[in-house]
Please model this.
Amino acid sequence: MGLGVGLALLCALVTNASFLLRHRGAVVAAPVDGRHPIRSARSLFASKWWTIGWAAAVAAWLLHVGAISLVPLSVAQAVISGGLVFLAVLAERFFGFRLGRRQWIGLAITAAGLAVLGVTGGRGARGAHPSTVGLIGLEGSVFAISLVVVVCWLRVPRVRAAQGVGLGVAAGALFGVSDVSLKFLTHVAGDGVLAAFASPWAFMALAASVLAFFTSARSLQLGPALAVIALTSVSANLIAIFGGILIFHDSIGTGGAGIAARVLAFCLVLAGAAAMPAPIRVHARHARGRRVEPARSTA
Model:
């Protein structure tokens, strides 16, 4: 049990560090262009910081797999979600960000809300099969809405001031879709590995991951970095939670108190997330050699 919790904590630490490293690499790369994905990917991986951050993200995924193999999924999820506070500590200590009181409070409230959602989540009904209808409904709607959000944030002038935040939320939702698809594939794999690879959900997981890769990279380029990273994580966690309820028959809570706690935790997540997109300054010494975008008018 202790080893599993330790792996989950390490996963949270490495995940947030990987986001910050990828941000440092993304801002010196050429702007991500969806019309030229290969060129954009080459530019990103040409940055050593992006490459290190991407490798760290892979390591975090392996740590997550190790954690959930040793402790219940709800426990691992609670620890990893609560580890969102690592983001603030790492950002100020090693990446030159200065967070205001509002951002610290927002991150703390969001981490607490996500942790409560993880702790109070019940396991799926024993012997119950995942709901294919729920999977189609959730993933189809999230994928479609994410595409609309990406197009709107890139094409509609009125929302361009918040491009980074909007794309970060969309990227997180797509990461969540990929995670739910992969979990569903573990059930399909019971019929054989080939059946899992031949499943349309394998394609959905791949498509969501690829689109999330470029959307997340562009959101990190546009910023504000801390808000984008936090909201990407929140969005991915919430999609995973809803996927557990709708698809894998996870309980929404045990008794009235448990349900009330989850509803309150969900409200805390939204309130904390709303507090984070505020101006965040970066020390000049960390900005040297990096591409600095001109300030946008808020008029």
